[in-house]
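User: Second chain of the day. Same drill as before.
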Amino acid sequence: MGSRPVSDDGVYLNEAVQIAAKILVVGHFAVGKTTFIGTMSEIPPLRTEERMTQAGAHVDDLMGTRGKTTTTVAMDFGRLTLSERLVLYLFGTPGQERFVQVWEDMTRGALGALILVDPERIKESFPVIDLVEHYGLPYAISVNHFAGTPVRPDEELREALDLLPETPIVTCDARDEKSSANALMALVRYLQERTR
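Assistant: Same format as last time:
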């Protein structure tokens, strides 16, 4: 069994599926990355979640996380077929700063990133955006609206996050398949526009 051919831009090719694109789903701690991948994956997602313990209480700030008891310690993985020609492999990164090395490894071969943002914890998104830009990945912003949080206008969020005018910004609920799919499609369209 030979290895699968890979194009110059890191896209895997084979007979059944012409294009398989690696997409990162990133964001700060407890923003909903695992939930998002679980919602969108057509296969049972691979999860590396562990129960949070008292030992990590001084490291992981749980303020504003609404009952979080587990955390991703390596990655989440899911797959989504968009068409006969395009399959997305979704890789979710851990949100804590101590896992930055994992991020570096996961950026290899990625075509882009969907950055999940909690509108109530905007400042926690800055280091994430900085990392994605550092690795040179094009990205879209998906504002994950949790129950009971006010909806903020896109322009207010764009200014708060200091985004370029062409950076897509969409709203989603990571538990909802339709709104999460819209967020992924915004990223895919943006990536396609950049290659034209």
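Strands lie at 19-27, 46-51, 70-81, 86-92, 110-117, 139-144, 169-172.

User: Great, on to the next one.
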